[in-house]
Amino acid sequence: LHPDILQFLKETVGEKNVRTQIIDRISYASDASEFKHLPDAAACPTTTQQVAAIMEMAFRENIPITPRGAGTSVSGLTVPVKGGIVLDLIQMNKILKISPEDRLAVVQPGVVYGDLDRALKPLGFSFPPEPASGKVATLGGNVATNAGGVKGAKYGTTRNYVLGLEVVLADGQVLRTGSHTLKCVSGLDLTRLFVGSEGVLGVITEIILRIDPRPLETSTAMATFENLSDAGRAVAAIMKSGAVPSVLEVVDRNCIRAINQNTNMELPEVAAILLAETDGSTKTETEAQMDKITRVFKENNASSVRLAQTAAEAEALWAARKSAYPVIARLNNTVISEDTTVPISKVVDMLEVIAELAVKYDILLVTVGHVADGNLHPHFTYDSTDPDVSRRVTEARAELYRRAIELGGTLTGEHGIGLGKAAFMSLEHSEVAMGVMRKIKQALDPKNILNPGKMDLDVCQE
Ligand SMILES: Cc1cc2nc3c(=O)[nH]c(=O)nc-3n(C[C@H](O)[C@H](O)[C@H](O)COP(=O)(O)OP(=O)(O)OC[C@H]3O[C@@H](n4cnc5c(N)ncnc54)[C@H](O)[C@@H]3O)c2cc1C
Question: What residues contact residue 124 under an 8 Å CB cut-off, 6+ apart?
């Protein structure tokens, strides 16, 4: 970066909030994905005015800007592939307002999901999307990726809760979208345009979120299935029964084996475990829902069904699912977590495809997933120093995406497109759809300075 630009950044955000040392640049070069690229510098603004000033300068000088929250993206969304400046928003971390009577909270983008949750809990409220990364991921990142979690089937994703935004546009103008009301149909829905936009359309500097009363009670059950198709049929039957599980998780045989090899849990090595939770205001309500679910488990040949009678028993049932990620992380030197999502009725077909790909490409695939919304997480765990296995993993991933789309699914239910899936956008989106997305990108970011290289939307290569 030209010394004048660095000087400008220091004057705008303060000297200590501009990072140019190689050690800092290395930290900003990657996220939780396999991609890396050094930025020229990072700046940590604390106000919307500072963000606007930086964007105005970047627009004038044609400098790439990559907005960044906690950097937990697993698909290269925050990797500054064209260099330039990383805009680290973690210091814009104030909860500006919590108004239970209006059912909303107003926050800055750098607030960590878990911090908002802690602030809402004593008031009896929650912001339900609950991504698994919620202890560290920011709300700005959650909005920019439309994050969701295990409770997606009942509570939806971040998109369902964003009432309005303040966004700094590529040229430094400040846009306000939506309103402080739960209902608003005024004008085009610009709020939704920015939700899930991965930092390619603007920098989110304030968020108005709907909050919900916190469920007071839960019921938990676990079932084992010797046969994958019985588990798949049980999922479809639960969804058809009218029951509304707040959680319905699958753990596949490879994952169960990995848990057994790395813990002392001694789980039955069945084809699949399903873990269900229902929540509500009273035990009567959650138990009535859970009765339906356990009945469906039994009707679909579950080899065992365990219903938790106490909080400690519920915790024990959750243990297998909760241990999955730490165990998977230890299996090899590289783990790639996919988020293939298909219609619920196709979950079992997708699980069969995953098993087929593991054999075809001779790789280890370990799967957990949120089956009530069709979102599976097959994990490729492998030795990335071995070029042959790396090539097979790359080929298997490409086939996984293609097969998910063939089943009527999507490339990504949670993690976003970023760099990892940019080359596959046209598998899912028609030329017309890609054309519309690129026109929107060009209208809002004519110089392609905002998070360039992502989502296959670049129309103006600098
Ligand atoms: C262990 C683990 C578990 C995970 N579990 C889940 C899960 O359950 N559900 C899920 O959905 N995801 C999950 N993820 C992925 C990731 O945590 C989410 O995508 C999360 O929302 C990213 O938040 P972040 O603050 O880390 O954003 P970053 O990774 O820093 O950024 C993500 C994207 O948002 C953009 N961005 C960030 N802040 C802003 C802003 N203020 N304005 C404009 N653009 C911005 C960035 O440019 C980038 O494109 C997981 C990741 C890990 C490592």
Answer: 100, 213, 214
Distances in whole angstroms, Cα of residue 439 to Cα of each of 432, 433, 442: 11, 10, 5
Residue 208 has a pLDDT of: 98
Average pLDDT, integer, range 200-208: 98
DSSP assignment of 244-307 equals: --SEEEEEEHHHHHHHHHHSS------SEEEEEEEEESSHHHHHHHHHHHHHHHHHTT-SEEEE
DSSP assignment letter at 112: B
Instruction: Tell me, using a 6 A CB cutoff, whether residue 134 lines ligand 1.
Output: no
Identify the pLDDT of residue 16. Answer: 97
Element (H, E) at 394: helix 387-406
Is 141 touching ligand 1 by the criterion CB < 6 Å? yes
274: Cα separation from own chain's centroid: 22
What is the residue type of 81? V
Give CA–CA dist 91/322, Å, rounded. Answer: 30
In short, whether 137's Cβ falls inside 6 Å of ligand 1 is yes
How far apart CA 100 and CA 123 sit, in angstroms, is: 8
Q: What is the pLDDT of residue 460?
A: 58
User: What is the DSSP track for 187-222?
Assistant: SS-HHHHHTT-TTSS-EEEEEEEE-EEPP-EEEEEE
Tokens matching residue 29:
């070069």
Rg (CA), the chain: 23
> 26-64 pLDDT, tens per residue?
999 999 999 999 999 999 999 999 999 999 999 999 999
State the sign of the Cα–Cα–Cα–Cα dihedral 90, 149, 402, 441. Answer: negative
* pLDDT band of 462, cuts 50, 70, 90: very low
Task: Convert 197-233 to b/e letters by CB count within 10 Å (16 or more is b).
Answer: bbbbbbbbbbbbbebeebbeebbbbbbbbebbbbbbb
Residue 34 C-alpha to ligand 1 middle, in angstroms? 15
Nearest atom in ligand 1 to 325's CA: 1
Q: Give CA–CA dist 456/448, Å, rounded.
A: 12
Is 431 strand, coil or helix?
Answer: helix
Cβ atoms of 238 and 302 within 8 Å: the answer is no
Q: What is the pLDDT of residues 394-430, one digit of tens each?
A: 999 999 999 999 999 999 999 999 999 999 999 999 9
Q: Does the Cβ of 172 fall within 6 Å of ligand 1?
A: no
Which residues lie closer than 8 Å to 11 by C-beta, 6 or more apart? none
